[in-house]
Amino acid sequence: MNNTGTSLILQVVARFLLPMLLLFSVFLLLRGHDEPGGGFIAGLVASTAFALHLFAFDAAQTRKLIGIDSSYLMGGGLIISLISGLIGVVQSGSAYLSAVWWYVNVPGLGELKISTPLIFDIGVYLVVTGMVTTLLFSLAQLEE
Q1: What are the start-end ranges of the H helices in the chain?
Q2: Na+/H+ antiporter MnhB subunit-related protein domain location, by residue (predicted)?
Q3: Is residue 2 within 8 Å of 8, Cβ to Cβ?
């Protein structure tokens, strides 16, 4: 055991798994509108990464790792999701949450599809990540 009361093995594993879990969450987010995945499950995987870090270290270090207050993640994600629904209304006069697609040529990568469903999923990702990490920080505060 070290000075934070957790195992050195858990800390090493957390440092190893955190970037891989976050990368996997981005993978799930980006493939979500075409295949199984999306903002909700990707946000849960990202939250799992932060939960593992919280268990291995402490709430202060995990907050520092996230770099932004989790309530801002929730609020920002909600705003992004709401705005994504308005794009279809403004651009084509169709119903709220109508899908709009843009095709962007990126040198070296080719053509990328950017869409309002992806923007909506990003908002959901931030809301879920913010909500779960807020819950985890609240539970960690009860423990102290």
Answers
A1: 8-31, 39-56, 59-66, 70-92, 116-143
A2: 9-134
A3: yes
Phi (first) and psi of residue 110, to 5 degrees: 95, -150
From the CB of residue 126, how many other CB atoms can be counted at a distance below 10 Å?
Answer: 25
Is this prediction's pTM over 0.90? no
**Three-state secondary structure call for residue 106:** strand
Q: CA 119, CA 63: separation in Å to the nearest integer?
A: 25
CB-count exposure of residue 41 (10 Å: 0-12, 13-18, 19+): middle
Rg (CA), the chain: 18
Diameter over CA atoms, the chain: 61
30 compared with 133, residue with greater pLDDT: 133
pLDDT tens-digit series, residues 49-104: 999 999 999 999 999 999 999 999 999 999 999 999 999 899 888 889 888 899 99
DSSP 8-state symbol, 38: -
Q: With CA atoms as reference, report the closest residue to 87 among 111, 123, 125, 112.
A: 123
Contact 137, 47 (CB under 8 A): no
